[in-house]
Task: inverse folding
């Protein structure tokens, strides 16, 4: 129920939403979406969801295109990367928002500089209300940066009509993962 | 707080008159209509949230110093440098010294009314640094050499063709009057600036005392850039932005975004808790937070204290019949609309904006729209009273001097009026006099011109009393005469 609500709200926010999928199907979808874009792929590492997907290996065929924070030239290459792939801490059904936390393997800019952001969400981390997410975060240790993403960058400064893509990602692709999902078929 | 840049005209009245006559401005201001529904929706659906939010704000202000001490301790424990600044001058000096010491060449700014209040961009530019506003609206306003005319939608005063003109001048080539084209051009232009900036400056929507978390809300994502890429992040935080607990964000944040733009949550919310940690590859190495006072602490405990509860959502501007007609620049102040009319004289201790509280119909739409229940209409009336006497507003102390300096003629007039209406006979006599006025001034029930009331009748007709008063008709009805 909460998943359906999240999907509807995120689509209202102009996100593309895929799934929920089993692990294997999710991996295939992420690789397929990333493959649509020419250019480098910035990848978050040491993320519990992404590690389950085994994206390192799955993107292996294009390993020279994959950029991770451990690489020495991460900072200089990231500004021209085409795709950023991240996991997420939480998602909020009521607002269609995903919450990203920063750490050594998950820099802030992976979801900021590339024009396409692919975000993988563990369906078990979707909560109903904004207040639920705040309560969960408050119970743990806060990362140095928490970013709540409600969709592609947007502005209403031009005569109050919404226009997408002013600063951050122009496209946000959300991939939901539910390890025990029945049979996965890309929607 | 005043600056010579904005709208010509010495008095509010002169500036408002020009604004009303500006056809392009009037066209642009109509775009604000969509926000009227926002206010109504908040009122209908978020009553409980409003009560809770108002309670949190009251709790904060009841011990503002205590919460600030707690916040400072938390921030310091996170490795943040805190600067307490009493005046805009102090705040500017802190930022300039820091920028010089750190060899800063380029500053990127996220939209912040606090930095407008202290004129920070101009100060940086005057000292040889490049300071770039990165919110699209603010960027346009900066390029045009103007100031924001609305605290949420800074360029609401310009139409799309006017905006295209401003950006085309910067581009050195004509850009199409097309949202996509203008957005894409600005994206590319500002991207270069972000990547090469040494310092990011933001305001704060809220800062939580228990966790030291700075909350910056945007839709564009420029706030994320300013807090992620430059090696130094400076947050200018007016002291009333402190909230006791991180958990309070559950109430305040949705209410802010709903009241500001009608969104359940803004597109991007950045929550910054300290500078980058040792193993991280991006984020600011140094984080500085400026506690800006600027006469705010003086308001605590006075009859204007509730103004410090303001969360800068802009809802009161959107519903104000005066703001919607004259726009923000006519106020000639950083803060415009109802909240600006109250805040400007208070922050300047009566030096600026003394005529602003008069620019209100006292319809109360602002107070009704306010998500944290600030009695804006009441505050405006109190300010009108306190500002009658020259000198600083003595916050919280009803101005006794004001009564004494009221002109004698006016005192006599109000005294006579009060005495007349204190008795039924006097009231009846005054109605007779009013009906006599009706016969002299206009037979169609409206006065088009009236001696002594030209201030009103120059722009409007004055409704006159009915030929037969309600009392007369009531008496007649009781006597069996049904002629209404």
Result:
């Amino acid at each position: 129920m909460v998943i359906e609500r999240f999907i509807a709200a995120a689509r209202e926010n102009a996100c593309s939403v895929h799934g929920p999928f089993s692990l294997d199907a999710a991996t295939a979808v992420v690789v397929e979406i990333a493959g649509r874009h020419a250019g480098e792929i910035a990848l978050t590492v040491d993320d519990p969801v992404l590690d389950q997907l085994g994206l390192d290996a799955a993107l292996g065929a294009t390993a020279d295109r994959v950029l991770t924070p451990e690489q020495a030239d991460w900072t200089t290459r990231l500004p021209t990367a085409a795709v950023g792939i991240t996991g997420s801490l939480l998602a909020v059904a009521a607002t269609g928002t995903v919450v990203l936390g920063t750490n050594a393997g998950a820099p802030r800019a992976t979801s900021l500089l590339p024009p396409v952001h692919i975000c993988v969400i563990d369906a078990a981390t979707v909560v109903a209300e904004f207040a639920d997410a705040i309560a969960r975060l408050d119970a743990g240790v806060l990362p140095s940066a928490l970013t709540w993403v409600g969709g592609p960058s947007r502005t209403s400064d031009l005569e109050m009509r919404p226009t997408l893509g002013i600063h951050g990602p122009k496209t946000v692709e959300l991939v939901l993962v539910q390890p025990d999902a029945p049979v996965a078929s890309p929607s | 707080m005043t600056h010579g840049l904005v709208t010509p005209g010495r008095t509010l009245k002169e500036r408002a008159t020009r604004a009303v006559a500006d056809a392009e401005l009037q066209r642009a201001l109509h775009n604000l209509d969509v926000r009227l529904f926002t206010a109504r929706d908040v009122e209908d659906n978020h009553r409980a949230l409003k009560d809770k939010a108002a309670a949190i704000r009251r709790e904060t202000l009841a011990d503002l110093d205590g919460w600030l001490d707690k916040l400072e301790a938390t921030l310091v424990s996170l490795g943040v440098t805190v600067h307490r600044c009493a005046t805009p001058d102090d705040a500017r000096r802190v930022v300039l010294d820091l920028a010089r010491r750190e060899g800063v060449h380029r500053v990127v700014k996220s939209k912040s009314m606090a930095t407008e209040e202290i004129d920070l961009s101009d100060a940086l530019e005057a000292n040889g640094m490049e300071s770039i506003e990165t919110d699209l609206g603010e960027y346009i306003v900066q390029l045009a050499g103007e100031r924001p005319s609305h605290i949420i939608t800074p360029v609401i005063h310009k139409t799309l063709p006017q905006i295209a003109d401003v950006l085309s001048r910067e581009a050195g080539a004509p850009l199409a009057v097309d949202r996509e084209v203008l957005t894409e051009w600005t994206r590319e232009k500002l991207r270069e600036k972000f990547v090469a900036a040494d310092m990011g400056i933001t305001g704060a929507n809220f800062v939580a005392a228990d966790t030291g978390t700075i909350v910056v809300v945007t839709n564009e994502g420029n706030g994320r850039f300013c807090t992620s890429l430059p090696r130094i992040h400076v947050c200018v935080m007016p002291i009333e932005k402190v909230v006791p607990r991180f958990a309070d964000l559950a109430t305040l944040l949705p209410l802010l975004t709903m009241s500001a733009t009608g969104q359940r949550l803004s597109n991007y919310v950045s929550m910054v808790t300290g500078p980058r940690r040792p193993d991280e590859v991006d984020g600011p190495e140094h984080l500085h937070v400026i506690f800006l006072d600027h006469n705010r602490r003086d308001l605590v405990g006075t009859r204007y204290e509730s103004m410090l509860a303001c969360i800068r959502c802009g809802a009161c501007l959107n519903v104000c019949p005066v703001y919607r007609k004259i726009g923000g620049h006519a106020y000639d102040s950083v803060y415009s609309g109802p909240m600006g009319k109250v805040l400007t004289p208070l922050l300047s201790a009566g030096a600026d904006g003394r005529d602003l509280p008069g620019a209100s119909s006292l319809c109360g739409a602002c107070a009704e729209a306010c998500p944290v229940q600030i009695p804006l209409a009441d505050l405006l009336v109190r300010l009108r009273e306190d500002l009658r006497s020259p000198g600083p507003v003595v916050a919280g102390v009803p101005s006794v001097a004001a009564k004494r300096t009221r002109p004698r003629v006016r005192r006599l007039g109000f005294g006579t009026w009060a005495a007349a209406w204190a008795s039924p006979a006097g009231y009846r006599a005054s109605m007779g006099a009013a009906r006599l006025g009706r016969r002299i001034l206009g037979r169609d029930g409206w006065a088009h011109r009236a001696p002594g009331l030209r201030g009103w009748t120059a722009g409007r007709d004055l409704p006159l009393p009915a030929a037969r008063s309600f009392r007369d008709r009531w008496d007649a009805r009781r006597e069996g005469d049904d002629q209404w």
User: Anything to note?
Assistant: The CA atoms of residues 24 and 52 of chain B lie 41 Å apart. The longest helix of chain B spans residues 424-441. Chain B has a mean pLDDT of 90. The first strand of chain B starts at residue 81 and ends at 85.
